[in-house]
Amino acid sequence: MKNKEKYKVIGLMSGTSLDGLDMAYCEFELQAGVWHYKIKAAETRGYPEELYNGLQAGVKLSGYELTRLDVHLGRWFGEAVASFIDNHRLAVDFVASHGHTIFHQPELGITKQIGNGNIIAAISQLPVVSDFRTLDVALGGQGAPLVPIGDALLFHEYDFCLNLGGIANISFDNQGKRLAYDICPCNMVLNYVASKEGCSYDEGGAIAREGTVIPELLTVLNNLDFYNQPYPKSLGYEWVKDNVISKISNYDISSFDLMRTLVEHITNQISRAITGAGKSQRLLVTGGGAFNKFLIQRIEQSLKSEAEVCVPDDTTVNYKEALIFGFLGVLRSCGEVNTLSSVTGASRDSCTGGIVNPFLH
């Protein structure tokens, strides 16, 4: 993996909302000190039922069962990459895979992503960069969020980059220093409630739109200790399950009212994060939640004239994280910093990610 003028990379992202595997074939080029990108092809593959159920139960599995799931997922990733390449007739330099997070408890020095990079490399016959979080956690960081360096170098025309994924997170520049953190649960909890109505997600926010905010529950959610902690800070499934899902399960209310209250909670926390910056701004919104028209409407209403909410084309909305993990792989292959301590709280910046090359040179 030598330094080149142009990199052709497949970025892989599997998020906490379990929507599927995002694959983005991207070209990256450095011109006059500025990185440029193009997403040339992209698609999402839904998980087979067995894999979906395994990932959903991941935190409860035994060590042996989790190891088997790691192998199974790595094989499925590798086969998905191979068919993606064949279908689009792609010339690829390497694959950069985030994997799928099972455990993320950085305060205990723990972060675990599965989807074995060695197996992806063996099946795709391509070099693979993976395991992007472990080094940062070992250096005392949160291991998250990792996307902000991509926000800074690829989307610098925006003041804020907001990702509405399983967890809502934000990144922004503050006096020349990149800051970022997880704001609150987003699609992870919205999809949980949608599943009670037999839906994978709340399409367009239709369920929430029909509900009424429950003030008592909204207050309980807004008063969670996490929201008063200083950043850098990050969230994982365990925290969401113990602190949000457990609480909303105690309320005997309709899915419509529950969904509406959660949307209001998410809006409150996003508004708090952005208005606290004290400047007018352009806000880039990506991630699956960008398609939730009711959520976007509530964010716009909450921010009023303080921010221009920018939802880009569908490809960028859906594949920005896969794009940026491809870019993190490029920076790793160049031996350049791809993880910022100003964002994660680590003792220093780092060039993180393990490289597996199935070929001898």
UniProtKB/TrEMBL annotation:
Highest taxon listed in the record's lineage: Bacteria
Recorded coiled-coil stretches: none
Classification via Gene3D superfamilies: 3.30.420.40
Enzyme class: transferase
EC number, as in UniProt: 2.7.1.170
Pfam families: AnmK
Listed GO MF terms: ATP binding; kinase activity; phosphotransferase activity, alcohol group as acceptor
Keywords: Kinase, Transferase
GO biological process, one term: amino sugar metabolic process
Signal peptide: none
NCBIfam families associated with the record: PRK09585.2-3
Name the UniProt record assigns to this protein: Anhydro-N-acetylmuramic acid kinase
Species, as recorded: Fulvivirga marina
